[in-house]
Sequence to fold (225 residues):
Amino acid sequence: NAGVTQTPKFRILKIGQSMTLQCTQDMNHNYMYWYRQDPGMGLKLIYYSVGAGITDKGEVPNGYNVSRSTTEDFPLRLELAAPSQTSVYFCASSYGPDRETYFGPGTRLTVT
Amino acid sequence: EDQVTQSPEALRLQEGESSSLNCSYTVSGLRGLFWYRQDPGKGPEFLFTLYSAGEEKEKERLKATLTKKESFLHITAPKPEDSATYLCAVQHRSQGSGTALIFGKGTTLSVSS
Fold:
């Protein structure tokens, strides 16, 4: 049982490039989330999904896109990377909205 | 506006010196309050969930309590391995089909031997 896994662990992008952050969970959770964490700030929700085929925006969705074709996977797409997207990205999952949320190890992204 | 405030921002303790971390919240209808531990370079690790005022949870040297406006994470006789950032998060009632957590900025605890 690996829990929530994320790839890559680190990435450096040039301004205007695109990339996909991968996230997989093996706990059969319906709910999945993408958060970003900036120094001195709380985790901010980017997008979330309540099941395969269903996604919705969180607090800071601009510049990102998601898809959920399976229960296990929830990739996050960055289009036209900007320096403001330099952050640590965490994928997470849970059984439900009021149940404990399990986080992946994070992806540290730098846009220069 | 829904808000979670943690204090202090940083706390330095000597090994064995007990203390408490505070998490105050203003949300419209609390569904749950969560405590997480985050080590440098890692994702948050779940510690406790509290659902109603008066509830308490314990795990080793940690004890979490909840009132209608705040939660405390009590650390008894801490050890250096308890050094980490402790995050508080709340989940509020929503008209939507799913919501996520509102996080505080965390309290960074350093325990020296």
Summary: DSSP finds no helices and eleven strands in chain B.
